[in-house]
Specification:
Distance between the termini: 40 Å
Number of helices: 0
Radius of gyration: 13 Å
Strand content: over 45%
Order of helices and strands: EEEEEEEEEEE
Structural class: mainly beta
Largest sheet: 7 strands, mixed
Shape: globular
Helix content: under 10%
Length: 125
């Protein structure tokens, strides 16, 4: 059974940093895509950053240069380092595991079957 547990969210001021963690179990890193998504109230869920099946990384244009995706395969943990946070980054952040055959599918929510419960990030101006 796949389980994903996020942590690390919180409230920060604009320009601040947070590091999100997602502890996973019940799957093999190398055979799945892994990603962070976010959803703000009244908006659709959007992909933020992802590892594809080949280990390559993909970022949403809105976070490039500010967010960094990483993982620890020994600890089965996915991380998202978020620097230079902006009020528009405010959302619930979810980690997810899924099967994306092609690298450009890595930020598609429809390709992800397993989701964590989410962690809230709030950025004030």
């Amino acid at each position: 059974q796949v389980q994903l547990v996020e942590s690390g969210g919180g409230a920060v001021q604009s320009g601040g940093s947070l590091r999100l963690s997602c502890a996973g179990s019940g799957y093999t890193y190398s055979t799945y895509c892994m990603a962070w998504f976010r959803q703000a109230p009244g908006k659709e869920r959007e992909g933020v950053a992802a590892f594809d099946r080949d280990g390559g990384t993909t970022y949403a244009d809105s976070v490039k240069g500010r967010f960094t995706l990483s993982r620890d395969n020994v600890k089965n943990t996915l991380y998202l380092q978020m620097n230079g946070l902006k009020p528009e980054d405010t959302a619930m952040y979810y980690c997810a595991v899924g099967s994306c055959s092609l690298w450009y599918q890595a930020l598609w929510p429809s390709k992800y079957k397993y989701w964590g419960q989410g962690t809230q990030v709030t950025v004030s101006s």
